[in-house]
Structures are given as structure tokens and as C-alpha cells.
Specification:
The protein has two domains: 135 residues, Diaminopimelate Epimerase, Chain A, domain 1, CATH 3.10.310; 103 residues, Diaminopimelate Epimerase, Chain A, domain 1 (Roll). Helix content is 22%, strand content 39%. A hairpin with a 3-residue loop joins strand 9 and strand 10. The protein is globular, with a radius of gyration of 18 Å.
Length: 283
Amino acid sequence: MPRMAQGTHQTGLPFMKMHGAGNDFVVIDARATGAGVSAALARALADRHRGVGFDQLAVIETGNGADLDLTFYNADGSTAGACGNATRCIARYEMDRTGAADLTLRTERGILQAVDAGGGLTSVNMGVPQLDWREVPLAREMDTLTLPIEGAPVATGMGNPHCTFFVDNAEAIDLAARGAEMEHHPLFPERTNVQFAHLVGPDHLRMRVWERGVGVTLASGSSSCATAVAAARRGLTGRKVTVDLDGGRIFIDWREDGVWMTGPTAHVFDGVLTPDFLNGLAE
């Protein structure tokens, strides 16, 4: 992992706090600071008592073949290949800053397109879903539509692995216990995000999520995409779906060019990490 630039230890490190439907992020614009980010910094920042607190840490860097390059860290210091709500938040920040109506963002998932959807909403194309067992990835060959696990969940790749259970009542699930158990299921060699969802009405889902490396979160963009794709594959919904999460509502549209996600964003505050905090990091 890259180390913090020496100057940041002396002057502090600026950051932004953002959220999308309650899925919250610390965002560091490394274009302005030149600072690298370590797993130790991610873990320290994620502590909601001794740091700032977040579901994911996002780092913005100068684009290489895109308007921006993004790197995501989970609360445990591991990296995440995709983070849809953070991508939307950063896209909104950059569009407001530059006046652009659309832009491209490079992530581990690939180059993603974001657009101003109007009415304060921001859309991002999270790419074509990965439906083959190798792409998710799973530990061995199997049908991703019906996994050999109690509850017969669906596996979907959206730049990170997802395991979606369709249940009678998502709100009745012990999410902390079931999520922690399923994150480390041996069928998922890279661990997995876990969703529990039920049908509210035509093309309308209620979903709750456990994110790998984080835990229970109020929302998850890539999980919303994976759940909508799984529901459409199961024939429960069409390809255009409203998803109600613990933190708010997200709209998913699975098109030929990828899974488009639309929802609200919030830039909550700006802050500066102190030199004392940065100097106290332990690798």
C-alpha cells in the first residue's frame, strides 16, 4: 500500500465526508494533496470513536484515460473493487465543481460513466453484471442462479462478489449473524457481500445488506445492482427496479450497456486530519 506523503504528517490531510442513502464515505482528493493512502490509515479513519467513521474510504486521483481514477478501501483496510454509492457521490462532487453534466471514472471495475439525472439525483453505469461462476468468482463450477446453499441464493459479480437471498421478510433476518456467516462461506474465495430481499410490489424490492470487510450498512450501490439483477434473472421483477434500503431508496435499470444506478447523494462536511492523528498511525 502507498505511504502517506511526508508533508501531510506536518500540515494535516484534508478530507470530505459524503453519503449516498446513508452509505457513508470518507473521500480524500489526492489530486490536491499528492498523498498516498495506507491500509493503516483506512482502518484508523474507519473507527467511528477514534477516527471519522465510514463504510468505505475513497481516494480520488488524476484520471488515466478517464476524468478521475478512484480507489476504494473497506473499514478493515482491504480494498474494494467497486463502490457504487461512493462513485455517485464523487461524480456529483466533480460535476458540481466543474459544471460538467457527465464524466468518466476509472475503478478496478473499469471505466464507469456518470451523468446528472436531474432533480438532485446522480446516475452511474456500474457495468455489465458478471454471471459466470468464474467471474463472480466462486470456488467451483455451478449455476450462479441457484447456489447449493440453504436458501438457494443467487451469485452475481459487480466488480465484487454478491450473494443474494430472496426471503419472505428481509426485516426479520438477523443480518449481523447471517451476514457474517455468509461473508466467509467457502464457495466465495474472495469473501462476499450478502443481501436479503423481498418483493414489495411489481418491480419494487426491500433489501438489507452486509458488506464484506465492513458489516451491516444502511445501503450499498453495488449490492442494489446485484439484487436487482438477481431478481430479474429469477423472474421476480423486470429489469427496472426500485430498491428500498435501510438508508433510503435507489433506482436500478439493467440495460444492454450495463446496470445503471440512480439515487441521492450528500456532501456533509469537510475536515482536516491532524498531524498528531497521522503521526500516530501504526502499520
